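SAMPLE LOG
Freezer: B-3
Tube label: C17
Construct: single chain, 271 aa
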Amino acid sequence: MRHTLPWLAAVATCTFAQVATAEIPEALDRASASFGVFYPTVDARISANGPAVAGNDLSFERDLGIDNTRALTNVRLELLILDSQGFSIGGYQYSKGAGTSIARDFEFGGDAYHASAFVKARLRLQTYNAAWHWWFSPTVEDVVGIGLGAAYYDLKGTIDGGISVNDQSLTAHGEAGASAVAPLLTLGWRHAFSPNWRGYADFSGIRKPSGTLTGHLLNGTLGMEYYLWRNLGFALEYSANNLDLKAEKASWEGRARIHFYGPSAFVRLRW
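STRUCTURE (predicted):
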């Protein structure tokens, strides 16, 4: 035991030194953190069905007449643990509300009437994901990878409407929301044009077939990154997302369809 412990310590020290100085593919970093903004064009539609309101699709742009662009803060963290394996964490929040109203006077049968109506809707989505990646290097400049993990998303949508004629009025409220964890599958590619220039492509898919919140979320991203200095650089990318979620409660059923696509810009730190 007296001779074994020093021998094991020496082996562990040599092994750690080899891992610490091991060469990793040029297209990957030991660790990186990205902070940026996603500025997509958004097509958001929600619906709610219940005993008091007949649900129909409500388009924020078409029916409520508001701008369909939105800036979303995006943060990512990627770590390489075993030279060819590692994990990533990321997520974003989306929130949008809109409303419209109409009021007018009209005459019918010799009597004057004042009528008004309104509709308001709000949609909030939070999604975060974490995945473990396995990377393979078919060439010196390229790596391809596959990842498995989980995604958490929380959805809530509301619709309020009302109409009044003179002293008679009628209002209704619909709401649906739920949160869930679903399995996540990712595919990735990285290419190093030079130590400072790199390109990448990522695809991820989430599907939850059962529970109070069901649906899918698909994402595709294509990007370029450039490092002005060894540890600091910038990245530009274009992403397209397709989200379709359905939430069910005892008395309500809600559905959200969000399609958003557009550019992102990041400040990226690497070690």
